[in-house]
Design goal:
Layout lengths: L1 H28 L5 E9 L3 E13 L5 E7 L3 E7 L1 E13 L4 E12 L3 E7 L1 E2 L6 E7 L3 E2 L5 E2 L4 E6 L5 E2 L3 E6 L18 E9 L8 E2 L4 E5 L20 E2 L19 E5 L15 E6 L6 H7 L1 E7 L5 E10 L3 E6 L35 E4 L1 E4 L5 E3 L5 H4 E5 L10
Amino acid sequence: MRKRILILSLLALSATYTLVSCSNDDDFGTEVVQKSTLTVSFKGDNIKTYKLLEIEAVELNTGAKTTNTVQDANAYSLELPKGSYKITINGTVITNANEELKIGGTTSLDITTSTANISIPLFIKQFSEDFIIEEVFYSQIKTPEDKKYNTSKYFKITNNTDKVLYADQLVIGQSEFISNDDDKFPTPYHPNEALAVKAVMVLPGNGTDYPVQPGDFIVIADNAINHKTNASTAFDLTNADFEFPSTNPKLASVDNPAVPNAKVIFTTLTFNMFLMHSAGVESYVVARFPQGETSTTFLEKYKYDYQYTDQAGNIKKRSVYEIPNTWILDGLNNGAKGSFYNLLLGTSIDAGWTGIGSGFNSEDRMGKSVRRQILGQTENGKNIYKDTNNSTIDFLRDSEPSLKDGIVH
């Protein structure tokens, strides 16, 4: 009997020991989560209000995700377990010009203390869908000898998206009509359907020959040479991506064999030329042929016949071509102060206009260009440009040409 009681006592003691041991093991193995308060502040150029931001914090070891929403504040504090994090910000802000833009930013950090602070730069994400006209230089240049140098003109076309685009077969069109003409009323006239053009050129390429990276640009020059050898105030356009040299012998245009030529598929001029009006009273567009259309089908199908009554009362008939608005990626209306009468592009393409100088052929227009305004920069330092389809607010008048010191990407 005593032996049995002894055995039961030992069993009870053993059970008690086991339970205590388990309890001790549990206490020792409990993981105590140590948390930290992280204060995230935001910074960006030209921002008046941080309207609505979403903060996403992902712990890199566990994959645990924490999301917080911030409204009308430039900083926010959140509680996170200590660890290694990737912090991502996305949202909308209001600029100093009262424009609402999409922004984003990201960073990585290790949280090892009870409190932590980090400032995250925010960058513009307001991308366009395709190429835009960033700048056009169409005015003359005054030489040191006070003469007029009428070349070194160019288009600067920019990839204002976040993806690679191809410049192959881009179409550049020049308006048939001019914005300072108040007495030519053509019939029929339908700018909200198509742009009547006096000249059209098409870039070479088979589809993927000329990639343009996000934020980068191409230059289409009237002559891809170093014009400084002719006039020190002109531009070095040797490194242009494309050129459209004139066949008019009086202009002494020299073809640069190292630069691919744009093909002028239509012009109303005697020579096969694309000649930009130096007073800036024309509109320009960059477009793409849709599926099934080419230079050949364009010339076959898109003739534009119109008539107008001249000042003497005579009816004049003309035949040119027109680019449908549905083909147009971007457009630019230009005009001269004091004599602007007509928007040549449909309002869905460009509801405003820009220009150079104080008036038609004014001396102060010489050496000036029109350049698109910069909204901000991407994380890799590329500009994002303003694009509201209104050149009055999208472009800066009387700008210093961006290529005055050469072509630098």
